[in-house]
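Researcher: Hi, I'm a grad student and pretty new to this. My advisor asked me to get structures for two proteins we've been looking at. I'm not sure of the right format, so I'll just paste the first sequence and hope you can take it from there.
Model: That works fine. Here's the first sequence with its structure tokens right after it:
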Amino acid sequence: MVDFKGAHYPKGVIVHAVFFYVRYAVSYRDLEEILAERGVSVDHATLNRWVVRYSPLIAAKAQAKKRPAAVSWRMDETYIKVKGKWTHYYRAIDQFGKTLDFMLSEHRDEAAAAAFFTRAIGNNGFPDRVVIDKSGANLAGLQNMNCLLILNGWFWLIEVLQVKYLHNIIEQITVPSRS
């Protein structure tokens, strides 16, 4: 449990304020007004301290309670416009459609794919197999992960399936628009 000892406000108020700031794109001053409308008088500097102090703790607790990912992943990348600039959107889901991770990158290359897989595996554990399309960069990123596994003494490798249509489940998931 996150320790709120020494806080001058009830736990529910702090959690609500941190959640609202992290979930919605509001400034601390706007959040101060929103809480004032609900009868809570708190300064924007205090809200900043709460977010800095409690959001990593709350995120760690939520991560610990997260259900484990399935052993079969689907991975794809697409090209989307974010704030007027085109960027690559990497995403991975499990076999049941649960989003595992996503990443925005300026480049679509082996380094970006390896960085994405490192992050996704760090957050969700190792998959038994990953289904990708015919992208050479994604294949190279997964081969990098398998090389790292061998170098670290693991003899259990990630099976890579390059099938053009098997990862269609990920293509059906909508891409968030950020213009």
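Researcher: Oh nice, that was easy. Here's the second one.
Model: And its structure:
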Amino acid sequence: MSNRVEGKIAIVTGAASGVGKEDALLLAREGARVVLTDLNEEAGHAVAREIGDTAIFVPHDIASEAGWQQVMQRTQDRFGTPGVLVNNAAVLALGSVEDTTLEQWQRVMRINADGYFLGCKYGVGAMKASGGVIVNMSSVAALGGMGVFCAYSASKGAVAALTRSVAAYCKQRGYKIRCNSVHPDGILTPMTAALMQGAADAPATHEQQGGDPMQRMCLPGDVANLVLFLASDESRFVNGAELRIDNAQTIMGVA
């Protein structure tokens, strides 16, 4: 299959590196015009140049309402009305309920929860007349207990609940907007490698992983493949779903 999102206009947050970068590259390869957003301007512009004329980069703090207004305006001016929004940008913070400070809690929630709320709010506003898809990046931390990720787990739980609310609201209003959440167990990115012991030494390619059935760290490309499916018309009846990408880790109940 090819050109699975031909003609679609997609916004991808956190697109300068990691999963967001892979999302943007794959959506572009499959026919979408892509608006990349991130705080890292140098890397973001580099990804946009790699894609070519069908991509632009917009500097963006996802927790800023004015920032979202600018992204939507830039998208409209360059390509037209967006039909896909991938809320991907986030921060990961270690800390139990005893270790986490209020300042740390508020920073994580501002980005991971407030930022996704604003994305959904402005995404729905832009898409309600013509329809579209919202993909929210959550985590298995939203589904199970992860004691060392207090604020992060709470923020990703908010993303999962927000997703269900948006999906229900859009259906009730008759908007042709689907909203789903993606829940990885762990992704090999620079962010996780910096925080999780041993992640930097984990196999970085499918070949290196060698089909290991116990492997729990997926690759950015694995997530991008799922995002592509959700962004495409192939998933037209998938709405309000929580899709785990965790190699059965969650159902095994193993920390």
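Researcher: Is there anything I should tell my advisor about the second?
Model: You could mention this: Residues 9-186+216-252 form a domain with the Rossmann fold fold (CATH 3.40.50.720).
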